[in-house]
TrEMBL record:
It comes from Smallanthus sonchifolius. This is Uncharacterized protein.
């Protein structure tokens, strides 16, 4: 099979959200800390009737319907999530209900978990399967679904929630350049969830930022080396049209792109212009550690990067800024933003993708885009995603209500024997929701 990649996409996110400027006010932090300091506009979260399973069910059902895919044509389904609902039973098995009902139980794949990286692992598994000798000619399906919630404190505004479903197969408008792919994997305690009784992570915010940037440097270096070895010519940022990043919050994306600009200066890439060399050259004498700590470098590189950021990164930031960190779904929601913003003009473009999961695991890979033929065309994908409408029809909650909800969810996490309010007035028709959890922890869902 040729040009294996993403044929179709759908995104679902809870309509419940809170504006970051209102949260700033409520939390009593300085004005602009979340909106400018973190670069976030709004944050989505699950109400008590939604969770990662219901979001996955909604995204998958909607994808199958809107692209008119026969559920029997799915041969592999992989789920990426770091929201643990059961330590044994995979989220994938919950989603099987959709396929069982249509008489298809012959579907390989389970869940992949490592912080925000599980979605990328799931995606690679599906792409690799289609490219392998065990491929049976059917589609792969990737589901990334997460609800990111943090304890009260500085990390809370970096929560978010959402699910992205992607159909995988050959002759895709979004094709993998599978030979160019570089990873950086190491052991770190930057963000982890050791307390199995709590949904909240333990997080060392500053360390997680540095780990993210170190992994980015390492992946970019590896990507360039692999590209150069195979292509025989140098790779630099000028060879890519767009850059899409895992987005815990937008400020880190701004810093990441600036870091790549600095990396190109440091490796003396031929595409770097004189002005960038002049402004960033002096910093190339810093050692690794110093360079991650230098505020002057951070400022200078962001300034140099700004025009290119607006062109190559900004179109892929809309959804993460509006929803917050969707963990495994974050990178793919960012990519969906790019399709939404640039759909018809993406033909022939190369998109760089950077996936990061704390702990830590990271990969940089690239995609080659072509318009394709409906229903698997970029134009149709943008139409199905229907992002503007989904963002417009949300319900904003007061901060007091949000905090109350967080308390309810803390109490319910890992619990049994409860019935939800079943209030679905805020949900669009077709949305799955949680109705109750019985005395044996079994979860039940219904469709609005
Ligand atoms: N106006 C404008 N900017 C402001 C204001 C203001 N009033 N107040 C603060 N800022 C800026 C700060 O200068 C800082 O910007 P900088 O990074 O460019 O210096 C930024 O806002 C954040 O402020 P800090 O005081 O550094 O933030 P704090 O320590 O309160 O927490 C953090 C931020 C660490 C990101 C926290 O939210 C967190 O731990 N989040 C979860 C971890 C995370 O997402 N890590 C990313 C990778 S791992 C993953 O994906 C989960």
């Amino acid at each position: 099979p040729q040009n294996v990649g993403i044929l179709a996409m759908e995104i679902y996110f809870p309509p419940t959200c809170i504006q970051q400027d209102i949260l700033e006010n409520f939390d009593g932090v300085s004005k602009g800390k979340y909106t400018i300091g973190l670069g976030q506009d709004c944050m989505a979260f699950c109400s008590e009737v939604e969770d990662v399973i219901s979001m996955g069910l909604t995204a998958v059902t909607s994808l199958l319907e809107k692209y008119e895919i026969d559920p029997k044509k799915i041969g592999r389904m992989e789920v990426g999530s770091e929201t643990v609902i059961d330590k044994s039973k995979s989220i994938k098995t919950f989603l099987m209900k959709i396929f069982e009902d249509c008489g298809n139980t012959d579907i390989e794949g389970v869940d992949s978990t490592n912080a925000c990286y599980g979605g990328t692992a799931a995606l690679f598994n599906c792409v690799n399967w289609v490219e392998s000798s065990s491929w049976d000619g059917r589609y792969g399906l990737v589901v990334t679904t997460d609800s990111a919630v943090y304890a009260e404190g500085p990390a809370r505004p970096t929560g978010g929630a959402g699910a992205v479903a992607m159909l995988i197969g050959p002759d895709a408008p979004i094709a993998f350049e599978s030979k160019f792919r570089a990873s950086h994997m190491a052991h770190a305690y930057d963000f982890y969830k050791p307390d199995l009784a709590s949904e909240y992570p333990v997080v060392d915010g500053k360390l997680s930022q540095t780990c993210y940037l170190m992994a980015l440097d390492s992946c970019y270096k590896g990507y360039c080396q692999k590209y150069e070895k195979l292509q025989g010519n140098q790779f630099s940022m000028a060879d890519a049209d767009y850059f899409v990043f895992h987005s815990p919050y937008n400020k880190l994306v701004q810093k990441s792109f600036a870091r790549l600009v600095f990396d190109d200066v440091a490796r003396n890439a031929s595409s770097v212009d004189e002005s960038a060399k002049e402004k960033l050259g002096p910093f190339t004498s810093l050692n690794g550690d110093e360079s991650y700590q230098s505020r002057d470098l951070e400022k200078a590189s962001q300034q140099v990067a700004k025009p290119e950021y607006d062109k190559k990164v900004q179109p892929g930031t809309l959804i993460p800024k509006q929803l917050g960190n969707m963990y495994t779904a974050s990178l793919y929601a960012a990519f969906a933003s790019l399709i939404h913003n640039k759909s018809s003009s993406l033909d022939g473009k190369r998109v760089m993708m950077f996936s990061y999961g704390s702990g830590l695991t990271a990969t940089m890979f690239s995609l080659r885009l072509t318009e394709g033929k409906a229903p698997f065309s970029l134009t149709n994908i943008a139409k199905v995603l229907n992002i503007e409408h989904k963002l417009k029809t949300r319900t904003e909650l007061e901060p007091e209500k949000f905090v109350d909800l967080m308390h309810v969810m803390e109490h319910r996490y890992g619990g049994k024997d409860y019935v939800t309010s079943k209030d679905t007035s805020h949900l669009a028709s077709g949305t799955y929701y949680l109705t109750h959890v019985d005395s044996k922890y079994r979860r039940y869902y219904a469709k609005k």
